[in-house]
Amino acid sequence: MGTAPIALQYGFFYFFAGLAILCAILMVCGRNVVHSAIFLIGSLLATAGIYLQLTAEFLFIVQVILYVGGIMVLFVFVIMLVNLDVASRQRQFNKQVWLAVLLTIVLGGELGLMTHVDGSIFNSVNAPQALPANTNEVATALFQTYMLPFEIASIMLLVAMVGAVLMAKRRGA
């Protein structure tokens, strides 16, 4: 988005930021756990949109594939397997509403103070005009500079996965 007008860039940012905040609020305030998981997916996708606008393609694709595609599917399966009747009968934490209101006022005051002191939340004077292609830089650093630690980490993860499978087989037998 380096060639788009600055107003359009701010418009996209505010759209994705507003969507992320709205989905986060609906996720926390929702009474249905499945709906909360869907709102979390919306918040993660909005964050991915901000990454794409910042030309951070690697973070965008990791956010979409790993978090939205992998971890949220796992969350939804866990939600479906957990007995939700027990959770609905437990005591709710309604006594913490005043603490939440107080923290909201404090954080809103900090945001207002930051806007008042700095003049704006965004400092466009120091914004870079052309960002480098960071996917190429990540790949170069990963496969040239940090090749040995990357391979060691992958071998350690493989050993841990094999160990977990063997421990699960011993318990099942």
> Runs with pLDDT <50, length 5+?
none
What is the CATH architecture assignment of the largest domain?
Up-down Bundle
Order of helices and strands: HHHHHHH
Major sheet size, sense and barrel closure: none
**Can you count the beta strands?**
0
Treating each run of at least 4 consecutive H or I residues as one helix, how many helices?
7
Radius of gyration: 22 Å
- Helicity, as a percent range: over 70%
Q: According to CATH, what is the class of the largest domain?
A: Mainly Alpha
Please name the CATH topology of the largest domain: Four Helix Bundle (Hemerythrin (Met), subunit A)
Mean pLDDT: 80
What's the end-to-end separation, in Å? 57 Å
* Share in β-strands: under 5%
Oligomer: single chain
Entry keywords:
flat, single chain, 2 domains, Four Helix Bundle (Hemerythrin (Met), subunit A), mainly alpha, 7 helices
Tell me what you see in this structure.
The protein is an all-alpha fold and 173 residues long. The protein has two domains: 6-92, NADH-ubiquinone/plastoquinone oxidoreductase chain 6, subunit NuoJ (Four Helix Bundle (Hemerythrin (Met), subunit A)), CATH 1.20.120.1200; 133-173. The protein contains seven helices and no strands. Helix 1 (6-29) packs antiparallel against helix 2 and helix 2 (33-53) packs antiparallel against helix 3 (57-81). It is flat and about 55 Å long. It starts with 5 loop residues before the first helix and ends with a helix. The model has no long low-confidence stretch (mean pLDDT 80).
